[in-house]
Write the structure tokens for this entry.
Amino acid sequence: MFGLFKKKKTLPTFAPLVTDMHCHLLPLVDDGSKSLEESLEVMEAMKAVGFEQIRLTPHFNYPRFPNKADDIKERYKNFCAEVEANKGDRQIPKMTSVTGEFQVGDGFMDYFESGQLLTYKFTDPKRGSEKGLLLIEFSLHQKRMGLEDIVFKLQMEGYDIIIAHPERYPYYDSHSEELEQFKEQGIYLQANILSLDGFYGEASQRKAYDYIENGWVEFLGTDMHNVMYAEALRHASTNRKIIQLLEKTEFENKNLVI
């Protein structure tokens, strides 16, 4: 009888997302994790706030991070084995794949032309994708000439596109005509969870909420790099506005196919 009055179990804040589809936890390939131990510590923190799965997305950004697809896939295979051998009793999310965050800049077309664009599989009830979902990012400083043409070319070649953290690009405002055009073309947007908590500053925070309010954002990602980001994610998990957002807004993270 008294069991009827038990409190409903509260799930961790980010449990509704299921999957984090943007993180930099493959060690020593970019500006993310610097060691196996750091990755394990960060993944444990991600599990604690509700993530059941993660997709690793190392930077492909020539010349700063001139990664090669085959090398990244081999490193990921070895990393998975190292994690399994060293995680001990830690509770961590399941790693389901490695793709990449490809910056549309110098060297990008070389990745495209040599078939090195690593993509997600995705179940979208509205449409399918021939080559999968491609996560791309733009410069955080200055807009590249011909950006729209490159994105359109990718679409014509059969890729579905996710633009990473558009709220962080200073050349797009809350009602950007360029982003609105991307949405009309069927481009997906992914906002950073930490943007919603003010981690990147007030302007990015405001734009992230505005883009979600506009109905433009299909995915949320942690953009996780290191233990400092993990602490910021813990803080974000207590943000009442973020909690309420996840209660009323359905994002597409959970539809990423293993």
User: Anything to note?
Assistant: The first helix runs from residue 36 to 48. The longest strand covers residues 94-98.
